[in-house]
Every structure is written in structure tokens, then in C-alpha cells.
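fyi for ur records
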Amino acid sequence: MNMRILDLQPDDEPTIRQVAALLVAGFATHAPEAWPTLEAALEEVRESFGKGRISRVAVDARGAAIGWIGGISRYRGRVWELHPLVVAGALQGQGIGRALVADFETQVRARGGLTITLGTDDEADRTTLSGVNLYPNVWEHIARIQNPGHHPYEFYQKQGYVIVGVVPDADGLGKPDILMAKSVARQ
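which gave:
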């Protein structure tokens, strides 16, 4: 696929709107509460231009947005939260997400970051961590995690991220947030 990854510009309203539409469509099935409307998604995209933020867009040969990744500086820039990542549904599985993550890691490293974290919610019963009471033996559940519903945590594992914990019931009873991290300094 012929694509480029570049900084999303705060004055590029057409691309901002394309990215917002990607967010709404990309999360509609498995996390519709994330960005239920174009207005909510536009607010998220515009927040990505703030201080201590990264906002990168993948565009195709015609310049249309086909993916987006954002990041938030934490711990005085030593840690960056990857938030969010979205790829156009019809183009998933073609390496766009992998390229965005690799580019994000390069951006973080260039800013002196050491670690990247992310949360990948399971709001739709896609893993064996969903729909159960994870207390009091949270780590036993994590050790036996399975992915019958094609949850994205395995995508991140393929990129070198590891599960570092969960937040049980983060999105309601039995709906955890799976926390993952990767060192960009210890490679």
C-alpha cells in the first residue's frame, strides 16, 4: 500500500473531519460509547493538538486519511500513552496499524520517551477477562487470558507490547481495561 504518515495539522479541517469519521466508524461495533458522534470524535482529534501530544495520520496516495494514532505525554515525558489508534475498517490487516505504531514509537523515542502504555478496553466480551469477576486473583485471570472475540490486545502483543495489568470493571461490571506497555529504550 502506498501511504505516508505525517503530523496531523490543526488547520487541516478536511483531514481532521476524515480522522473523526474514522474514529466513529472504527469504534462503533465494539466500543460505541467511545466516540458515539462526529462531534465527540472531532473534540478528541482537536485535543490531540495540545501540548505534550502526538497526532499522526496515515494518508493514501490521494491524501485521504486511512489511519490515525495519538499520544499523550505522562511522567514528565518518560512515558507516553498511545491513545487512540484507528485504521479504516476495509484496510485493516494491511500493515497500516503496524506502521502507525512503529512511527509512534519513533516519535516517542525522539522526544526522549522510555515507555509506551495503552489501555485496550474489553467492553464487548471479546476476551476471557470480560464477563467475570477478576477479584481477588486478577493475575491468575491475566495468565490464562484467551481471545475468542478477536480483541486487539493480540495485535499489540505482535508489536512487542505486554499486558502489565487490568482495571477490572473499568467500563462496567465485567468490562475490564487491559493495560499494556512496551519499552522503547530497552531494545
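The longest strand covers residues 65-74. thats all i got for now
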